[in-house]
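Predicting structure from sequence has reshaped protein science. With that in mind, we have picked out one protein's residues alongside their backbone shape tokens:
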Amino acid sequence: MKLGIVKEPDNEQRVVMLPSHIKKLTTSGNDLLIEKGAGDRAFAFDKDYEEAGAKTVSREELFKEADMILGIRLPGKKEIDSLKPNQILVFVIDPLTNTETVKSLKEKGNTVFSMDIIPRITRAQDKDILSSMATVSGYRAVLEAALHLPRFFPMFMTAAGTIRPAKVLVLGAGVAGLQAIATARRLGARVEAFDVRSEVKEQVESLGAKFVEVKGATEDKSAGGYAVEQSEEYKARQRELVQEHARSSHVVITTAQIPGRKAPVLITKETVENMMPGSVIIDLAASSGGNCEVTKNGETYSHGPVTIVGKSDYPSYMSIDASTMFGNNLLNFLKLLIDSEGKLTLDFDDEIIRESCVVHQKDIYNKKIKSIIENQ
């Protein structure tokens, strides 16, 4: 097959695959086309791809010749409309939210896979880009907090006196939250963490953090590791306890998201206005509405004496390692779609292929996406 790797938009520094990944694909009988300059922002240059066995081409040539087009951010409507019927797309589409995009792709008739809806089952862990990128986000969020915080993270005992360690509160103990806890602990902070899922308590405590528990949460093991919607009574108890701990923290890192829905508000405006001067909030759910009531997506600003950072694109800032991890996940996914001789094999009896497929032959394959669109 001819596989094409596109250059991402200017606001995205990652590339979907690095030259090290290309070598593994070319030895499997595939031809690789790389859009010129695709890896520049991840410090992988055209000559590196060519040495790995790929051919650098223009964007127009890539869309014309590739059998399968790979990338992170979906191309624009004009390029989608220009696709040939048999071309396959593998991107990150966020189809639970971008339903209009799904409808357009369905009408177009191409086969489209979205890497962000791969089912979160044991067999799919090495293909799970959400976990990989959440690891990057959790790590980077703590570094950003440390840069904005007008305090040290660790405790210092000096001739000038003792500096007490910073107190960090992490809301949501998924992959991003656990990585944030681990990183904050490495920097010497005192860390507390909250999550509606009681089974993460042991993980939180194993990293040296204190688990803030609110009794009576609704849990759903079929939610793929995500939080689920809670009762109003639980939300009231949660708000009271979370606000109490947030007001006494120097840093709050929020990570809670519900797929296909607005992120739950965990930090109210009132709480922000009662936090200690100089405190920092890092809201990783900014792109889906924010866990903090006053977050502004894509902005860093001061709400009174509190700094609020609304960023959901931290993986882009760590383009080399984030691209490495993303490429590894994609390589493992492609092994399900392409056999050892480079031939396409779409086995829709395979749960991973079926659930990650957005559209095929003008039909929506993922049942959850289909249900959302039919009920709109």
User: Anything to note?
Assistant: The chain has two domains: 2-109+319-374, 133-317.
